Amino acid sequence: MKQQGRALVTIPSVAFEFSRTDSIAGYDTRANFIKNFLDIYPIEKHLQNFIPLIPVLQRLHGKMSYSDFLLYCCLYQFQGSMLLTENHKDFIPTILNRYGIFTIDRGERDIRNIAMYIFDHKKFERAAEDILKT
C-alpha cells in the first residue's frame, strides 16, 4: 500500500479503543499492530475545519460518539478516503456511500461484517442545505 502512496490511518481515540484488552500480552500485540501497520492522524488539531459538518451531523445523528464524529471529520477532510468499520448503525448512508462489505468468519459464533464507507460531498451538500434552511 505504501508503494502506491496509500496508508492505513487511524485516530488516537480509535487506537486507544483498539488497544484495550484484559492482558499485557494482548495489549502488546495490538500496540505492535498499530505501530507497524497504521499511521495515527491527529484529527483534533484541525477541528476548526469542520464547522460546516458539526450542525449537519448533530441533526442527522445527534447521539454519535466523539470518536465517530472524528472519523466523519477524517472522511470529510480527505476526499476519497475510506472508513473500514463493523459499526454500521453509526455511519449513515445519508452522507456516506457504502463501497463494499466483506465478512470474516472466525468460527462457529463469530462472524464479522466489515464495510467500507466513503464520504459523499454531494449528499452532504444536499443534507446541509435542507438542515441549515430550517
Features:
5 helices; 134 residues; two-stranded parallel sheet; alpha+beta; three-stranded antiparallel β-sheet; 2 domains
Polypeptide structure, described:
The protein has two domains: 1-41, no CATH class; 49-134, no CATH class. With 134 residues, it is α+β, with helices and mostly antiparallel strands. It is built from five helices and five strands. The chain has a three-stranded antiparallel β-sheet. It is globular, with a radius of gyration of 16 Å. The mean pLDDT is 89. The protein has helices spanning 12-19, 24-37, 53-60, 66-77, 121-132; strands at residues 9-10, 39-40, 83-85, 96-105, 111-119.
Shape: globular
Mean pLDDT: 89
Strand segment tally? 5
Order of helices and strands: EHHEHHEEEH
Strand neighbour order, sheet with most strands: 3-5-4
Instruction: Work out the helicity level.
Output: 40-55%
Number of domains: 2
How would a crystallographer describe the biggest sheet?
3 strands, antiparallel
Q: Which class of secondary structure composition applies to the elements?
A: alpha+beta
Distance between the termini: 44 Å
How many helical stretches? 5
Fraction in beta strands:
15-25%
Poorly predicted runs: none
> What Rg, in angstroms, do the CA atoms define?
16 Å
